[in-house]
Amino acid sequence: MLVAPQLGENVGAAARAMLNGGLTDLRLVAPRPPWPNPRALAAASGADSVVEAARVFDRLEDAVADLRRLYASTARPRDLRKPVLTPREAVQQIREAAPDGAGCGVLFGPERTGLDSDQVALADAMLTVPLNPAYSSLNLGQAVMLIAYEWYQAGRDETAEPPSGLDSERHRRPTRAELHGLFRHLESELDAANFLWPPHTRANMVRNLRNFIARASPTEQEVRTLHGVVTALAGRKWRRGEGGE
Amino acid sequence: MLVAPQLGENVGAAARAMLNGGLTDLRLVAPRPPWPNPRALAAASGADSVVEAARVFDRLEDAVADLRRLYASTARPRDLRKPVLTPREAVQQIREAAPDGAGCGVLFGPERTGLDSDQVALADAMLTVPLNPAYSSLNLGQAVMLIAYEWYQAGRDETAEPPSGLDSERHRRPTRAELHGLFRHLESELDAANFLWPPHTRANMVRNLRNFIARASPTEQEVRTLHGVVTALAGRKWRRGEGGE
Description:
CATH topology of the largest domain in chain A: Alpha/beta knot
Distance between the termini of chain A: 39 Å
Number of strands of chain A: 7
Mean pLDDT of chain A: 88
Number of domains of chain A: 2
CATH superfamily of the largest domain in chain A: SPOUT methyltransferase, trefoil knot domain
Oligomer: homodimer
Radius of gyration of chain A: 19 Å
CATH architecture of the largest domain in chain A: 3-Layer(aba) Sandwich
Low-confidence stretches of chain A: 159-166, 237-245
Number of helices of chain A: 10
Order of helices and strands of chain A: EHEHHEHEEHEHEHHHH
Helix content of chain A: 40-55%
């Protein structure tokens, strides 16, 4: 999933790389106009079908709504406490959870800036490619290539462990939409309680809370439980200053 | 090592990819003029040092003369009987033989055509990236990227086996120059004996012979032995028609 890609050429290169690895579900969040972009199609040479089938969303939250696992590709370490996986580790995790990758996605940020911390906070884990620390800059197409390549390699490994059942009925992951519903429920209650205050600290507090929850990768059942917790606490008319803090 | 690269941009992209993986010894065989190529430098952005330090050769044989292990990157299977390794397998083999990669090289062919069979025949093994069979086309920069990436990953693996000693004094590989010396010795004797005849079949016979020897990856000692064999046989004034056949 490409967030705010600036150059059509890079979307095309990403599509090629995906198809090299047998991946086809390309999603774009707020691509720089125009879209459809003739340069993306030109650069896709042979992978045009992936570009043509790409789904475009205005908001990141909508783009990931149906996913159950989400990884955020980052070039630099972040100050967010969240697992950092290599591409090889991440694809292994995905193959174990869903051999065909259904419901799993990887976020890539805009070319110059990468994902911002609010976007990274939405993911279960960060994904960083280990490269020469003295020269680790990758362009978007190459970053997608390395993930798609590892995805394909993991699928070739016939000695792979059978699915561990972590995503079985009982431990099923929530969709991102369900997770966002929990975020919003929590945040609206916290706003009502004047907890996310003063205003200039709000964004940071929200990010850290979301990051915390996403990092824990709750199950569907746990999400339901957390909704219950929020409702229960809010019903208690929790107010700033009342708690321990 | 890039054989007859046509576009400066691709040389630059290959240099970047190499440096991403911590590799710097770029060699070019008969790059399309001009060289030095300003487009290569522009595309190298940050890896200019690799492009500037690239060594340029007219002939492939000279470019690989000092190497002891040589892999030929190929997109398609060839009719040559020769091991086909994945990048992961190849870098593991190299790391075991020479943890810093000294004396080992990978050949990449021209963008449109790839290496020809005569060039592949010079290598110890072929190297093919397993990718979606329905769409496996890679550009030169991406192909180099995947090898450089795997090279770097293999170096990170601290649980790697200690060097197996296969390239120890006793089993030392010949340099390619030594191997080519053997080829030439053998071929000149075969020419003298009218074995590589009729002329229109010569190229094919030479290729198959070279491929056979390279595939066997002889040690330095074995190369000396083979020279002895050729000399001994030639001294016997072996002539076409005299042998079994």
